[in-house]
Every structure is written in C-alpha cells, then in structure tokens.
Amino acid sequence: MQGKKFVKSFRLAKIIQFGILLAIEIVFFLILLCNPSVTRALYSNLPLFLLCAIVWILMIFQLICLIYDFCKLRSFALESHELNKVAYLDELTGIPNRHGLDVIFRTYDTPQSMDHVGCCMITIDNLTEINERLGRQTGDNLIHDFGSILEKAGDAFGTVGRNGGNDFLCIINQCTAETLKQFDDALTAGTDAYNREHPDTPIRLRSASIINSEAHITAFPELLIVTYNKLYEEA
C-alpha cells in the first residue's frame, strides 16, 4: 500500500514538473515569435544568445529525462503487477494462493462481516493415489485442471483459492443453504464433465461446508479451523 502511494505521488510530481517545463518552453518560443525586436536583440548579443541557448538545451534535456522517468514508471508498474501475481496467485492453478486468500480473510474483521459468510473447503480425494500410480506430474496436472473447474464454478458465488497443498476454498458472502447447494451443483457438474473426458484420471472430491449464520463463529480463522476439522473428520 505504501509503495502504491509513493508511485502515485511520484507520478503526480513528475506530471506537474513536465507541465511547468513545457509551459516555459512554449512561453519562450511565443516571446521570440511575437516580439521581433527581442529576437533581433538576442541574436545581436552573443553572450545573451549563448546563455539562452544553454538554458533552452537544459530544459529540453530535462523534458527528455522526464519522458524517460514516465517510461520507467510504466515499466515499474508492469513489474509490480507481475510480482503481485507471483505473490498472490498460485503458480500451478492461477487462482489465489494462501497469501492472496489471507488478504480476503482480513476483510472479515467484524462480527457483522462474519454474520452470513459461508466457507466450503474441498480436497481432491484421490490425489495421493494418482501421484503414486501415475507420477507427481500427473497429480500436478490434476490440481491445475481442478483449479480451472473450481474457478469456473465458484466465481459466480464468491472467492475461490488454493489454501495450500491439496486444500481448496470457496468463500461465499450472504451464504445460504440454497447458495451452497447451487455452488456444489456447479462444481459437481464441472467435475463430472471433466471425468467424462479423462476417464483414466478422474477427479474425486471430498468437501465440508460451514454456513456461519448457523454456526455463529465470531472469528474467520476459527471458521477455517472448524471447516478443516469437519473435512478431515468426515474422511
């Protein structure tokens, strides 16, 4: 956040500086164009001419430096965007990783924000079997493909992400039993379609859900823990 504020302030300062220099350049040329007597006096006085030429060259040089600064700022913004993607998106699936999810978790910082949130935790139940039978690369491919299925199913309902390893999440605001069922139906439909196309490496899922309007948990980390325990207690 501090970095973004600095970049914004720095860019604004450069824009103001560029505007001032450009305005001075324009005024300088207008004076020369509109006042022939000033032009003649300038050309007839060699020291004054050289001084003005040096000042003009320096101003042109500053304008070029400012244009370069704008190019570097753009490059910095693009690099920052890529770094944010690396920091907050899971490399294997392209959906938010644990760091990205932590940003979402921190928004649930009041009892009111927790009132109607729902949490669904999902794991690929046969991932270990796939890894042992067909190799880790096949297992990684399965995780990648499931990330796409989860994102497509969950985007209409809330925020999805990979919580680490073989644990995936969908966080739904204003969650009801009906909303949760609709998400589950969409995820099941996506998984079933995938399995028909990949009969040798089907995805089998296990999931657990908490609707906080029923559970009345006051802190989001606790909601995650309860959902996690529920998922693996039901194994």
Give an overview in words.
By secondary structure, the chain is of the alpha+beta class. Helix content is 69%, strand content 11%. It is built from ten helices and four strands. The chain has helices at residues 2-34, 36-44, 46-88, 98-105, 111-114, 127-134, 136-154, 177-197, 212-215, 220-233, and strands at 118-124, 159-164, 167-172, 205-211. It has a four-stranded antiparallel sheet, with helices on both faces. Helix 1 (2-34) runs antiparallel to helix 3 and helix 7 (136-154) packs across helix 8 (177-197). The radius of gyration is 30 Å and the shape is elongated. The chain starts with a helix and ends with a helix.
Number of E-state strands: 4
Low-confidence stretches: none
Radius of gyration: 30 Å
The largest β sheet comes out as:
4 strands, antiparallel
Beta-strand content: 5-15%
As a percent range, the share of helical residues equals: 55-70%
| Overall geometry | elongated
Strand order of the largest sheet: 2-3-1-4
What letter string, H or E per element, gives the SSE order?
A: HHHHHEHHEEHEHH
Q: Termini distance?
A: 41 Å
